[in-house]
Design a protein that fits this description.
Helix 2 packs antiparallel against helix 7, helix 4 packs parallel to helix 6 and helix 7 packs across helix 8. The protein has 14 helices and 3 strands. The chain has a 3-stranded antiparallel β-sheet with strand order 2-1-3.
Length: 361
């Protein structure tokens, strides 16, 4: 025991923080699993466990872009939607080939991560040349474009494989894409994914959170992570010592996008009906609020903020119309209470955009 205590004391401070983060997540999972199995959680709270896991992964992954890389991205919900719908397509298509629900869920999460990573690469190559508000505007546009494309998407599955079409002019229906009579409609345009088998679980969410933390924390503590933070702190100085700006920015951005896609697949397979409107600009702002309130670069803070702030609006459902107003007020209070210039800058960018979005609504 003394040797174990001595080894713990000999660990670096960052290593202790990382282990404490892992331990905290494990303890929370065990606690809520015991409470759920004993019937001490009501149906509403039980139904929120998987979405909370998905949003925790979203917050941690976005913190990699905003807190570690230092770039403001407002299109994170776009990557989540790519992962959600690609994961749903994969899971529904493999029902006969892979009867095991956990195996199909794992495949769907992997597929969602891969497709989101591809989308992150396509977006990141031109976008990461921009900085500041320009980067935020372009990523915001990406999220809205993805949402509109998914609204026009028709997907079905039958014995001949997948059938896909884009209903751009609104004249097509799911029956117009060559599906056999006994086929399965997966995505019906504006109706979204309907009749999806809900195979997501709290255990899968916990495993995904742990994988996300391992990936992000190991990246941050690595040589590549130090290079990414050097770019955040002073790009010119980092370039002067030979750090490849494009390489390390893409590394952080694509990793963040892939994890968001995995979270989207978990989220999408938790609902029998899913529409693209679930992944609007408000969702990106919501996740950004989790990151800001949890602390830029603070993964444990992102976990707590995501869990608490997701639960509160559901617990106070009658005040849901004022949720975003409350978030704005809290952001102002955080800005006044802290000397972190990055939080002040982020709050200054977010609040005017939310005001404009409210006026347009």
């Amino acid at each position: 025991m003394k040797k174990l205590i001595g080894r713990i004391k000999g660990l670096k401070k960052t290593t202790k923080v990382d282990f404490a983060t892992y331990l905290g997540v494990i303890l929370a999972f065990v606690l809520f699993t015991v409470l759920r199995d004993r019937g001490l959680l009501n149906r509403s709270i039980t139904g929120m466990l998987v979405p909370i896991c998905a949003y925790i992964v979203m917050a941690v992954s976005l913190n990699l872009t905003v807190g570690i890389l230092g770039e403001l991205s407002l299109g994170h919900a776009g990557f989540m939607s790519v992962g959600a719908f690609s994961g749903v397509i994969a899971a529904q298509s493999l029902q006969a080939a892979v009867p095991s629900a956990p195996a199909r869920l794992a495949i769907a999460i992997l597929v969602g991560a891969v497709f989101a990573a591809v989308a992150g690469t396509i977006v990141g190559v031109p976008v990461l040349r921009l900085r500041g508000d320009y980067l935020a505007i372009v990523t915001l546009a990406f999220g809205e474009i993805i949402k509109e494309l998914i609204t026009c998407l028709l997907v079905a599955w039958d014995s001949r494989g997948l059938h896909m079409a884009f209903n751009l002019n609104g004249s097509l229906t799911i029956n117009d894409i060559g599906m056999e009579p006994g086929g399965m409609a997966i995505i019906k345009g504006a109706q979204g994914a309907t009749g999806t088998e809900t195979i997501a679980s709290f255990t899968a969410g916990f495993i995904l959170i742990m994988i996300t933390l391992v990936i992000v924390l190991n990246l941050v503590r690595s040589r590549a992570g130090r290079a990414i933070m050097a770019l955040r702190d002073n790009r010119i100085a980092a370039e002067s010592v030979g750090i490849n700006v494009t390489k390390y920015k893409m590394m952080a951005f694509v990793t963040s996008a892939a994890l968001a896609g995995a979270a989207g697949a978990l989220y999408g397979l938790n609902y029998s009906n899913l529409t693209a409107s679930k992944f609007s600009f408000d969702t990106s702002i919501l996740v950004l609020v989790y990151v800001v309130l949890g602390g830029l670069g603070n993964m444990w803070g992102s976990i707590i903020a995501a869990a608490v702030l997701y639960f509160l609006p559901e617990a106070l459902r009658e005040f849901k119309d004022y949720r975003m107003l409350v978030y704005a007020v809290v952001l102002i209070l955080v800005m006044l209470a802290t000397n972190d210039s990055r939080i002040k800058a982020l709050a200054g960018r977010i609040l005017p955009k939310r005001k404009g979005a409210k006026d347009n609504g």
